[in-house]
Amino acid sequence: MKDTAVSLRNVSFRYSNGDKGVLDSVGLEIKRGECVLLCGSSGCGKTTVTRSINGLMPHYYEGNSEGEVEVFGRNIKDTPIEDLAGTVGSVFQNPRRQFFCVDTTAEIAFGCENMGLPENEILRRLNSTVSEMHIENLLERSIFNLSGGEKQKIACAGVSAMLPDLIVLDEPTSNLDLDAVYELRSIMKLWKEQGKTIVIAEHRLGWLRGLCDRIVYLDNGRIVKEFSGSEFFGLDNTEINALGLRALNMKSNYMDLPKGLTEIKKCGTSGVLTVENFTYSYGGRNALNIKKLDIPKGSVTAIVGHNGAGKSTFTKCLCGLLKGFRGRVVSDRKPLRPKDMMKLSYMVMQDVNHQLFAETVLEEAMLGADDSDEPKALELLTKLEIAEYKDRHPMSLSGGQKQRTAIASALMAGKKLLVFDEPTSGLDFSSMKCTSELIHSLGEDVTVMIVTHDMELIESCCTHVLHIENGTIE
Amino acid sequence: MAGLFTADVENRGLVLDPRTKLAVVITLVVFALGGTGSYIKAVQWGTIVLSIIPILLLFTAKQWKKGLILGGIFSAMKISQLLLITKLNSPLLSLLGICCMVFVRLMPGLIMGAYMLSSTTVSEFIAAMHRMHIPQQITIPLSVMFRFFPTVFEEISMINTAMKMRDIRIGGKNSSKLIEYRLVPLMVCSVNIGSELSAAALTRGLGTKVKRTNICRIGFHLPDIVIFAALLALYLLWILGMIGVVK
Predict the structure, then answer these.
(1) Distance between CA A65 and CA A86 in Å, rounded?
(2) 3-state percent helix, strand, coil for chain B, nearest multiple of 5
């Protein structure tokens, strides 16, 4: 028994708010020092398994739970979450939402402070964690000035400093670019060398090659299959996609394309949108400098580049959302002012919750339109496959349906340029496919730009790739 | 007011102990706003020096523009108060009186209060409260609340952007529902963030029975001592004035 880190015996769970991700008699033994990957499509219950290990279920997320969970011999049911703090460390999906302090040093020390360790001990742990992870440059910084990847590193450091024997990660890379993912990988490698037990639930799989000893595949709240590391990472993409999982490795890395616009698939076009002399500086730094760029109308263009390359600055300028940028967009020889661009374009944000206002899906679609346009709106909702939800509140829909509602409202308002900000981050294979088909179905009337790190999405639906680095395409 | 306890630790100039800042605010309220001891000449001059402290602090935090404008307004108002007030008659006098009330008596305290909130981090705040022996049951909920503000402001700005793109604005077709349209997404997002944030805090042991340590180094250094000495001097002048030693 001494070698067992975690044991789940016949665990079933149903959220009392009806959330997806139920568990149905799950049994799992994890040995000390093992690195286990939990995978499966959205709602398969992998996040719930991580929550059952770090105590958030049943202590924080309420529901109907059965079965026994033991972590290092302690029964989770009888242990308050906060007492598990020094034993189980957790890293979550959204780095923005797991920080408590505003400066990095305090944040790393936060967990240790809560445990009531003596000050000297905290400082000692802080120093050793920082030098192990090589994050000296991130100390004494303001949380608000960090990139997503840097925030996730600080979160890992905060967990590490508490010296837990078991670390649970719940989709830690959903909001990270590829470089940051590989930095997280080296942190996990370090933990593994230190003999820590790691449980990770993930959609993105390729980066875990050579790291995970055992892969547990869940479907509908049950463990369906287990693989060894070499077995699993030997599967080819068709087999992986058949399981509803994201590809292990991609044939093409679009980040390797030269800077500027490259056509990767033919598309029927009717004219171009020309971007001329786009410049924007932010805090005295030149964030964007694009002399000339022709975007074919009706194309689907992926915008790729490293974090901080200026991708989102570019799209914001394009939508006329930033004040103080210079340059213009020309369409059919007609120059457009920022105000016109704002009329013409629409951005589907990463968190769609920010842009749904009305009480019903139909009302949402009709917000910018005349009442006489209702038949047109209904037709559009049918085309986007959300007609059956027309009387539901948008906030009660699933993520994908919300995305569709936002698109419906944009199309009703006559928008011709749709910008998507990371539409598939944290989505499984079938949801990614749905988004891709949706973008396809928009037709040649609408020009689409997608800011994304998702190579699989680019391969399945984009016609062009725009590679930006350091704010330029030259 | 997006600056509540979100101090930019990389770039905030002179670091004072939170308790020093609190003492300056209280003294400003007593002397500048309350007009305590204003019949004593020495206290009057002392109050002017005290009122300049928040403006100097703005300069140390490299907020040049704000410091210059506010400093300019303060000195202009104070000088005209000193020179003109005896020479004016009623309508102009009451106008100047109102301006002096706002800019000379109220404003320094407000600047100092805003500076105090925007230049203190959450951990410094907790540490200072701890040193003043205020119980954890009060400080922890307060710090959670302060932690939440910047996030909510971030959400509001994103919702505003989304509304701009949808052309929902005052004077538009839906202006009667502007508030509702803003509140619904804000509430949904805030609830989501709040629940994720508390889950994360719990897994990191916030709320255990053990007594929390705090590694945040707060304490009185030379600038704090100088400021405290100045404050003390002012109180001393006032007492001496009351017993008639100084005028």
Answers:
(1) 24
(2) 70, 0, 30
Continuous segment of H or E residues that includes residue B45? helix B41-60
Question: Dihedral of the CA atoms B3, B186, A397, A461 (nearest 10)?
Answer: -50
Please give the distance of CA B82 from its chain centroid, rounded to a whole number.
Answer: 27
Q: Which of B101, B81, B111 is closest to B33 using CA atoms?
A: B101
Q: Closest Cα of chain B to A97: distance in Å?
A: 5
What distance in Å separates the CA atoms of residue A224 and residue A244, rounded to the nearest whole number? 13
Identify the burial level of B8 via C-beta atoms within 10 angstroms of its C-beta, where 0-12 means exposed, 13-18 middle and 19 or more buried.
middle
Residue type, A28: L
pLDDT at B1: 35
What does the alpha-carbon distance between residue A107 and residue A247 come to, in Å, rounded to a whole number? 35
Model confidence over B148-172: pLDDT tens digits? 777 788 888 889 888 888 887 776 6
- Helices (H), ranges, A319-424: 338-344, 361-366, 374-383, 399-412
Residue A402: count of CB within 10 angstroms of its CB: 22
Best interface-test mutation with B: which of A114, A322, A350, A419 has the largest number of B CBs within 10 A? A114
DSSP state of A196: -
Using a CB-CB cut-off of 8 Å, the residues of chain A touching B210 are 115-116
| A86-118 pLDDT tens trace | 899 999 988 878 888 878 998 999 999 989 999
Q: What is the DSSP letter of A320?
A: T
Residue B2: predicted pLDDT: 41
User: Is A350:A427 a contact under the CB 8 Å cutoff?
Assistant: no
One-letter amino acid for residue A312 of the chain: S
Distance CA A218, CA A46 (A): 7
| β-pair partners for A134 | none
Report DSSP letters for A40-72, one per residue. -STTSSHHHHHHHHHTHHHHTS-EEEEEEEEET
Strands in A35-39's sheet, in edge-to-edge order, are A88-91, A166-170, A197-201, A35-39, A214-219, A222-228
Q: Look up residue A413 and give its DSSP letter.
A: T
A109 CA: distance to closest CA in chain B (Å): 8
Contact between A92 and A134 (Cβ < 8 Å): no
Cβ(A136)–Cβ(A109) under 8 Å? no
Of B212, B161, B114, B14, nearest to A100 (Cα)?
A: B212
With CB atoms and an 8 Å threshold, state whether B204 touches A158: yes
- What is the Cα Rg of chain B in Å? 23
Instruction: Please give the mean pLDDT across all residues of chain B.
Output: 85
Contacts of A94 in chain B (CB under 8 A): 196
Between A193-202, A285-294, B144-153, the lowest mean confidence (pLDDT) is in B144-153
Nearest to B18 by CA among B114, B111, B116: B116
Summarize pLDDT for A286-296 with one digit per residue, the tens.
888 999 999 99
Provide the chain A residues 159-198 that lie in CB contact (below 8 A) with chain B: 159, 162
Residue B53: predicted pLDDT: 92
Cα A272 to chain centroid, rounded: 31
Among residues A7, A95, A9, the alpha carbon closest in space to that of B196 is found at A95
Q: What are the beta bridge partners of residue A11? A: A26
Query: Distances in Å between the alpha carbon of A282 and those of A143, A310, A325, A339, B155?
Result: 18, 11, 10, 21, 21
Token match 């060894």: residue? A228
Cβ-based neighbours of A443, under 8 Å, separated by 6 or more: A298
Among B120, B136, B166, the strongest candidate for a mutation testing the A interface, having the largest count of A CBs within 10 A, is B166
DSSP class of residue A142?
B
Cα B1 → chain centroid: 10
